[in-house]
Amino acid sequence: MGLLVTATAVVSCTSGTVPGTLSVPPGPVLCGGKPVATIQAVVPQLNIPPFGMCMSPNNPMVAQATAAAMGVLTPVPCVPVTPAPWAPGSPTVLVSGQPALTQSSKCACTWGGNIQIGFPGQQNTQVAD
Q1: I need a surface site. Which of 23, 52, 116, 126 has the fewest CB within 10 A?
Q2: pTM of the full structure
Q3: Which CA distances in Å does 128 have to 11, 81, 101, 103?
Q4: Where are the alpha helices (DSSP H) in the chain?
Q5: pLDDT tens digits, 51-97
Q6: What is the largest CA-CA distance in the chain?
């Protein structure tokens, strides 16, 4: 069982330096008075915030800055690139035809970071993962 993810959920990236807040647009399903997110809430800058500085050597900007610093890992401002939906979503709860996002869902960044959910935005409504 996992908790449903709502607006104000705290998300983080394994290659980022700070967590951020997932942004969820108003929708037809609320949990604790907040809109429930779906697996499609992956749009950078709209849903997925920047995570401070990116430290992934797979990021071309980090690689370039690191090379200029003679091999010393040099973080650059985070600009997430999320080409695929969160997975897995809830098999039992749909929001506008899409699986709801649960706390165990993860999302990959093209640069190699794994985006995960810390605090899901609410603490009471559990669903099957």
Answers
A1: 126
A2: 0.91
A3: 21, 28, 11, 11
A4: 60-68
A5: 999 999 999 999 999 999 999 999 999 999 999 999 999 999 999 99
A6: 52
